[in-house]
Amino acid sequence: MKPSLFRDCFAKKNAAFSERFGAQVVSRVSDQKTEYLLVRDGFGLTDVSYMHRYSFPEDKGLDFLDALCAGNVAKVRFGRMLHTFIADEAGDLVADCYVANNDEQLVLLAESIMDDAAFKSMLLSRGAADAGMTDLSETHALLSVDGYKAWAVVKGLFGADVLGLPYLSVERYEFSGQPLSLFRAGKTSEFGYYLLAPAANAQDLFDACMAHAAESGGGPCGVDIHNDLRLEGRFFNIFAEGATVCDPLPLGLQWMIDFGKESFCGSKAIFERRAKGLSHKIIGVSASADANGFSKGAAVFNGSRKAGDIVAACFSHVLGAQVGLALLPVDIAFSGLAFSLGSKDGPEVQTISMPPIMPKSLTVKLDEL
Amino acid sequence: MQAAIDKRRGVIDTFKRELIRRLNLPYTPEDLHEDVALLGAGLGLDSLDALEIVLCIENSFGIKIPDQNISVLRSINTVVDFVLAQKAESGAAA
Fold first, then answer.
1. What is the per-residue pLDDT across A259-289, written as a single tens digit (0 to 9) for each?
2. Chain A contact for B20, CB < 8 A?
3. I want to staple A353 with a disulfide (CB 3.0 to 4.6 A). Which of A29, A205, A241, B77 is the partner?
4. pLDDT digits (tens, 9 = 90+) for B32-60
């Protein structure tokens, strides 16, 4: 199992650890509601060193990454990032990733349902060594700061100019005399930043971020709460609906694909399925807080017939209701319809428009602070 | 159920078609999931695009979006909810 590079920092906070696709992760630090409110009202500090991370020299890496990823890597300008995915030859998802163009270097940050060894092996089999790939997994730690007040943490660390960074951008800073890459991204629908720093600086970086905890209402949190935050914000989660559905088209990930590209890994299968048309797709669903059985794998009934399954579920503290995603036939995958859970007589499940909440961060203009 | 679906589908189809045309998006209507984020993540549209979306809604459906109501623009589905609610309201008033 790939160990967490922030293990000692989070262990001191009484964190619970678990394994996810071959990587040790901090699953939680406190209870679900506490961590949820940290992100929605303040900031949450999360160890995301389970993410695969590699760098490539731009001149060699560009063609390699463009042939690998569904999005158009060649169009990523200096200082910007692309959010896309990597599929296998069958056109099924293996990773949800960012490609950042950072100072003559391309950085790949990926969440994958492959473990580290399998993911690296897949990259090497496609020519990563010739593309000059450097594995950052052990040399560099990755921490995320997410939340309504996340900007205050990075502003405190790197100065006010971080507030001018647009969404999906990357910038280099210095921390403890070492280079640090700051990525403005995140999947909670609040402000989000990834901090990539030499592993030797992990503890100092964690402490520096935590120094803002009292002032900005922040604290450490685990990856479990991110599953809920992503779902509520309707950000794609490869560890939830992605691992279950696998096909990017029913998942609504067409926006991550450049259909104008001649080919990328899995493109033949994906383009064929696109031409054929969708039979099913995911749609947001909601049930009251006391509806029993609203969980991943539960059947959704349309009258007496099973229509589909729930593929992701959580409790939304903003809505006071259970929220999820269901895979339904396209002819009934519309918001505003009523179904039942588990059987025709089960609790009511409504299809809903996603995202169902308005994140507080959308009301803040960082460049006007 | 079918009547509700048909009503919603009509607004979705019109909005997607106009959105693709006005913003010159490299997608077909079928490629755009109704829950895809319009601004920032997802389609990655910016504040200028947001103005174009507002005009698109106003011209396609004859409905005005209040200046501060950016929450309507979270996704195609939230725009469609707004359009259907406004149509229902104006229908009830008439």
1. 999 999 999 999 999 999 999 999 999 999 9
2. no
3. B77
4. 999 999 988 888 888 888 889 999 999 99
Question: What does the DSSP assignment read for A232-280?
Answer: HHT---IIIIIHHH--TTTTT-GGG--TTSS--TTHHHHHHHHHH--SE
Which residues of A sit within 8 Å Cβ distance of B?
83, 167-168, 187, 189, 234-235, 252, 254-255, 258-260, 274, 277-278, 281-284, 302, 331-332, 334-338, 353-355, 358, 362
Which of A83, A255, A274 is the closest to B36 by Cβ?
A: A255
B25 secondary structure, DSSP code: -
- Pick from B40, B41, B35, B50: nearest CA to B80: B35
Whether residue A191 contacts residue A150, with contact meaning beta carbons closer than 8 Å, is answered with yes
**Least CB–CB distance from B77: residue in A168, A255, A353:** A353
Size of interface A-B (CB pairs under 8 A): 78
For residue A341, give both structure tokens: 């859970």
Query: Least CB-CB distance to A259: which of B26, B40, B77?
Result: B26
CB A260 within 8 A of CB B25: no
Separation of alpha carbons A23 and A51, rounded Å: 9
Residue A37 CB contacts under 8 Å (≥ 6 apart), including other chains: A317
- Taking CA–CA distances from A189, the nearest residue in chain B reads B41
Q: What is d(CA A349, CA A286) in angstroms, rounded to the nearest whole number?
A: 6
> Do residue A259 and residue B31 have CB atoms under 8 angstroms apart?
yes
User: Domains in chain A, please, with CATH?
Assistant: 1-49+137-238 (3.30.1360.120), 53-122+247-275 (3.30.70.1400), 279-369 (2.40.30.110)
Structure-block tokens of residue A288:
């009251």
Task: Using alpha carbons, select from A367, A333, A368, A369 the residue that is nearest to residue A352.
Answer: A333
Contact call for B5 and A234, based on CB within 8 A:
no
ipTM of predicted complex = 0.93
3-class SS of residue B53: helix
| Closest alpha carbon within chain A to B41 | A167
Tokens of A181: 């890459």
pTM: 0.95
